TrEMBL record:
Coiled coil: none annotated. It catalyses: hydrolysis of (1->4)-alpha-D-glucosidic linkage in 4-alpha-D-[(1->4)-alpha-D-glucanosyl]n trehalose to yield trehalose and (1->4)-alpha-D-glucan. This is Malto-oligosyltrehalose trehalohydrolase. NCBIfam families: trehalose_TreZ. The gene is treZ. PANTHER family: 1,4-ALPHA-GLUCAN-BRANCHING ENZYME (PTHR43651), MALTO-OLIGOSYLTREHALOSE TREHALOHYDROLASE (PTHR43651:SF11). SUPFAM superfamilies: (Trans)glycosidases (SSF51445), E set domains (SSF81296). It holds the Pfam family DUF3459. It comes from the Bacteria. Residues 78-446 form the Glycosyl hydrolase family 13 catalytic domain. Its EC number is 3.2.1.141.
Amino acid sequence: MEFEVWAPGAERVALLCEGTTRAMERADGRAGWWTAEAEAADGARYGFSLDGGPVLPDPRSRRQPDGPDGLSALVDHDRYAWRAPWAGRGVRDAVLYELHVGTYTPDGTLDSAAGRLGHLAELGVTHVELMPVCPFPGQHGWGYEGVSLWAVHEPYGGPEALKRFVDAAHAHGMGVVLDVVHNHLGPSGNHLPAFGPYFTDTHHTPWGAAVNLDAPGSDEVRAYLITSALAWLRDYRLDGLRLDAVHALRDTRACHFLEDLSAAVDELAGELGRPLSLIAESDQGDPRVVTPRAQGGLGLHAQWNDDFHHALHTALTGESHGYYEDFAHAPFAALAKTFTGGFFHDGTYSTFRGRRHGRPVDRARTPAYRFLGYTQTHDQIGNRAQGDRLSASLSPGLLACAAVLTLTGPFTPMLFMGEEWGAATPWQFFTDHTDPELADAVRRGRRREFAAHGWAEDDIPDPQDPATRTRSCLDWAEPLTDPHARVLAWYRELIALRRALGDLLDPDLAALRVAYDESARWFAVRRGDLRIAVNIGKEAVDIPLGGRGARVLAAWEPVTAPGADGLLRLPAESCAVLATP
């Protein structure tokens, strides 16, 4: 078979394959590329040596059996016999579920996670969103320090295990979205700089030099990322990709990298005959991310909406530090603005940033389903000092209120694993760096970060302590006992309502109406013939819903339908969904 590698600065390149070394030749008509022929089959180990240096793994390695620093291994994707027929599933009308393979079960493998997919199917989830699975140092970690962008972390089970997981999800009728990280790699195990200008000092990011999307040599770097994305979608039959922190993709070219990527993914979707989705994490508050390319946008299919999370979080918890400050001033008003306008920051002043931020959403051409709404995510839990979930500080009733606003709201809902039963386990920041200096730097950096906010060092979990990861694993005995079982039943009921009632899938933000009382702490939403009422306060309230003859479809606590006066008497820390004739 033919081996190839891009190494534009090398004077000579050698291929080491199954213990045999052979010189590579420059590829005709492909500047910077080297090729060589060698007998090899699935599983064969190989690597490249540049100018007589050490043998390094392939930047496009499909498998790293011995971790990021080991030799690469060939993968014959045709060897896997797919079992579940699958026509694909887009993000419209979806319910996503963010899942971290290493803590979803104590075993921390794709196969063990696949064994729990029946729970998600019964819950009503339509898509599993896997956190990153690319190889990273050690065994356990969040996955955002991966390196080989075509490979699957071996402790998770490697390439075959990911295919089995996707196959099992499809058999349950669920799509699979994979979180991929294009904005940085490594640092540990990152050998890309030895091969070419994959990074540039032209721009800087929180992780150092930026990925090279616009400097000399960037054509090949952009192609590297795009072909990696297409490989995940094609070779593993994935239904979409979640793109980490796209605001850190620094690109000054006329045609942005994300526009090129979305065009390539749409083309692949046409070839495969099934929908493929790109979901962005963006901190820019810019609806052009999800505006179609034909309308001057970047053409991604959906994006996370942190504004919704922040407004809801401040209303529930009263927290006001950091980026919560702007929302905490009047959290119900902030929630109302995001419900009806998509973003809270739409060109308004952000105290946290010290400047104006965001851009208005054109509600006439931007459907609500292009924004993901969520109460909790890996970031919003794991980046807290102790990784505490909402369940650590909120009553089951308030968790139910959060769920009803997320699952009956206008945005595409996403849950974080364990949220559906109010998991008591934290989800903390953990690493398994094999480099002692890097491990210590991460540990000290974490403690220093939170010490600035008044936390004692001893109260900050040690990311390198295996117990930190163990504490973060879900406890699958919890959903069998109250109050967890009750919360789980509520989530199932709400998702079933979302699937059954067309008004809950209406993507028109302009058609949605809200009312609220900041002091009484209630919030009400009208979606077509439906009314959603939430009381976050500690006292019962009378909420003017209007509409005679309303009937209760679902309620956290027993309630009576409004009488002739249209008032709904709602108990403290409770919520209800009603239908009007």
